[in-house]
Amino acid sequence: MSTPELQQDLHAIRISKVSKRYGDFPVLKEINAEVTRGEVVVICGPSGSGKSTLIRTINRLEEINSGSISFDGRDIHAPMKTRELNRMRSRIGFVFQSFNLFPHLSVVDNVAMSPIRVKGVAPDVAHKKALLLLDRVGLADKANAYPGQLSGGQQQRVAIARALAMEPPVMLFDEPTSALDPEMVGEVLAVMKSLAAEGMTMLCVTHEMGFARDVADRIWFLDAGQILEIATPEEFFKHPRHPRAQRFLADLR
Ligand code: ADP
Ligand code: MG
């Protein structure tokens, strides 16, 4: 890992000619795109355009039919042992629409669990770190609560803390605020915004166009399995080039 090219590639994601079908249905069609280190990408597009499928291929929750996705200078979709795949996955944090917390574990145990189990971190060290992360997402006082005692917004912030506990260089978000009551959307977006400000590399599927405008470095507009436009928020919101993007934005208003 000493050559300049490999160093440059570290922590970046490069998606090359990625195609995927469900049966005969092409859900991703030769997708090409890159995420550079520290970049915040917002993926938007109509429902059913393939946003979730695309983001899930990045940590191989979905297999692909052709193409490649490199991360840390390695192809995530190359044949590899489960152990190796799990190690790679642990370097890519994922936050889902549904929070998926373990209901029988306290909040702090939810956050500390993966570092203990996957990384072999000593429990007391993992718990201390978990408390710091909970503080960071504004939930230090909920460490000993159980997920069922928290609001949706609080649970999603715990889910973000849990993903961060593995110290991933990249975070993926798939509609993290879509399942929340409107009054809780802001608190989750604020945590995401602070992560972005700290330089985290992030890919976010979201319909929150205010967040996209304020936080994204670039927007990928996906439609029917293709990226039709990659643009800065200024370009995208003021002068969308593709007619489909123009229609998508007009429909939001
Ligand atoms: P988005 O997240 O943009 O709404 P998805 O990636 O979830 O889109 O889905 C893209 C398309 O693939 C949709 O037409 C959806 O119905 C289809 N699809 C998603 N998952 C599956 C699956 N497991 N089997 C078959 N079709 C699927
Ligand atoms: Mg989706």
Question: Would you write up a description of this structure?
Answer:
This protein is α/β, with parallel strands linked by helices. The protein is built from ten helices and ten strands. The protein has helices spanning 4-9, 51-58, 82-89, 107-119, 123-136, 152-164, 182-197, 209-215, 233-238, 243-252, and strands at 13-22, 25-35, 40-44, 66-71, 74-75, 92-95, 170-174, 201-205, 218-223, 226-231. Strands 6-7-8-3-9-10 form a six-stranded mixed sheet, sandwiched between helices. A four-stranded antiparallel sheet has the order 2-1-4-5, with helices on one face. Helix 5 packs across helix 6 and helix 6 runs parallel beside helix 7. The N and C termini lie far apart (48 Å). The structure holds adenosine-5'-diphosphate and magnesium ion. Adenosine-5'-diphosphate binds next to helix 2.
Task: Determine the structural class based on helices, strands and strand pairing.
Answer: alpha/beta
Query: What value does the average pLDDT take?
Result: 94
Using the CA coordinates, give the radius of gyration. 18 Å
Measured by DSSP, the beta-strand proportion falls in 15-25%
What fraction, in percent, of the residue positions are helical?
25-40%
Form type: globular
- Summarize the main sheet: 6 strands, mixed
Give the total of beta strands. Answer: 10
Q: Could you give the order of the helices and strands? A: HEEEHEEHEHHHEHEHEEHH
Unreliable residue runs: none
Q: Name the ligand types.
A: adenosine-5'-diphosphate, magnesium ion
The number of distinct helices, counting runs of at least 4 residues, comes to: 10
Strand order of the largest sheet: 6-7-8-3-9-10
- Cα-to-Cα separation, first versus last residue: 48 Å
